From TrEMBL:
GO terms for molecular function: serine-type carboxypeptidase activity. SUPFAM superfamilies: alpha/beta-Hydrolases. This is Serine carboxypeptidase. Gene3D superfamilies: alpha/beta hydrolase (3.40.50.1820). Keywords: Carboxypeptidase, Glycoprotein, Hydrolase, Protease. Coiled coil: none annotated. Pfam families: Peptidase_S10. Belongs to the peptidase S10 family.
Amino acid sequence: MDAEDDSFALFLTHDYTDQNIESLGVGALNGVDSVRFHALVEANTFVSADHKLRFLMARLIYQAPPFDPRGILNRIPLLAENGPCHVQSDLSTKTNPYSWNGQANVDQPTGVGYCYGPTVDYDSGEHNHPHLADRAFFVAEESYGGHYVPAAASYLLKANILRNLSMDAVHINLAGIVVGNELTDPAVQYLHSVDMSFNSYNVSLLNEQAVIDMWKAQPVCHELIMQCQKYRPRCVDAMQLCCGALEGLYYQSGRNPYDIREPCTEENVMKCFHFEHIDQYLNTPSVLDKLGVDVHKSKPWRECDATVGAGFAFDEMLSSADDVKLLLDAGVRVLIYAGDADLMCNWVDNQAWVMELD
């Protein structure tokens, strides 16, 4: 792969390897003492250079009780949702015609998965790939990304102001953010938890008593979330009550909370998606070898991790709405979208917090 070819994009992550695999375009970042890799991901050659975008996409989703807290890692969306290929049940891969790289160049930031190394910030991509500097830059994510996408974008916005004061600094052309089915302003969103019990699919999710219980719990949940904004220890209380008394009842409905059109009786709803073959694929010796994973230092691939998820206990109920306001006031475009069959961070509560921005 030719890094100067405009049909390729930089793809960064804190995963896998300190080896340099030229044939794959992956390897360690120069001078970085940590195990991660970069890869050039081909953008669709039929998309003109003027319309190619650069995206920063992050994947670290926190699932709240009644599951154990867990971090859900970025390889699931990459290999089962909107990545360049999908892993099949026989562990082969199939090209995804709807992948993000049909329109965008993607920078995948640091995260979890196979990675290990010191917690240190590195900023070198713009200097290593100056030909990408003028591209429109978007920060995109879903679900818990409603917290850190606005935060990351507002950080870049403020950093650009400081960069403008420095002659040798690289300006990042921040153009917008894209977030789907996200948790951004919990104090507003949890007030609409019961609304999805009345849905356009006529799916019965709650009995009459459960609806009453949720109506009673919503104002208590709201008050705890408001306290959380000023006093962090209350954030755990808010998370436990809101997730247990509001979300928890939906998990007992026998429907998939991520798609109410589908049944799901598993205690861990992730099992209803049948991602087991992705776990197998990412732990296959030939795949690990090709990626350069040091199996003696890196942990085995796991779909979810309780330790990672627990680290977000004080963060989940905090609001990122002010960051969104800052971006809008600065003229940065914001796209918020939500599926109408998704209970988690559903379209009703997303519409509500967006309207509250006024």
